[in-house]
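User: Here's a chain of 255 residues. Predict its fold as tokens.
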Amino acid sequence: MRLAIENLHASLGQARVIRGVSLSVEGPRFIGLIGPNGVGKTTLVRAIAGLIPFEGEVMLDGRPLAALKPRERARHMSYLAQGAGSHWPLEVSRLVALGRLPHLAPFARPAAADEAAITRAMHLAGVEEFIGRDVLTLSGGERARVLLARALAVEASLLLVDEPVAALDPYHQLRIMEVLRAYADDGRTVIAVLHDLTLAARHCDRLILLDNGKVKADGTPSDVLTPENLRETYRIEARIGEGAEPFVLPIRRSE
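Assistant: Prediction complete.
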């Protein structure tokens, strides 16, 4: 999978949010999109997904995003929105099965390959225990994992996830990061909006730090998570540990 973004600009209302972002992504990668609140992370992901108007170019495998038909785009790119919810009383496995719709002809029943993809996704997200339950009876964190399973069931070459661990307890935060890492290691690309810098440092191959709608830094976690970058973008002083288990521990605000 090759993703190329050239001079991308995007606005929300009258406010310019993304300002000339250019990026290139090729091959299996787990990329963390980081930065303070309001710098354009969600807007950038939504533009890549083709969900909002933008100026510039987004190319997927050498083809402009606008040239892909909606069903084709949905097969190659899966998106899980920040705080995504479910407002209909669907049984959990039926909700996860919606991730296979881009692969099905209209009114066609899932084939064996689709059923296998659904099973794999539910296992990866750890939601088999909820089979038979109405999704509306689940807690917010449990529902978030089911919705991630739906996104995984697409088995798209590019997975976009916006704050996938925000509603989860520490155990399930680690589990979901491991799931996303495994999804990338299976030959796909994951781009995840993340706020937990330690999780980003431990699981991502590459971090893209946004500030004021522009790319402030782009590289390995150790290259991006420097005291200077944290001070200039997050306005914090932090203790940064490297090695097999890196960490970022905020110490104080830096004015």
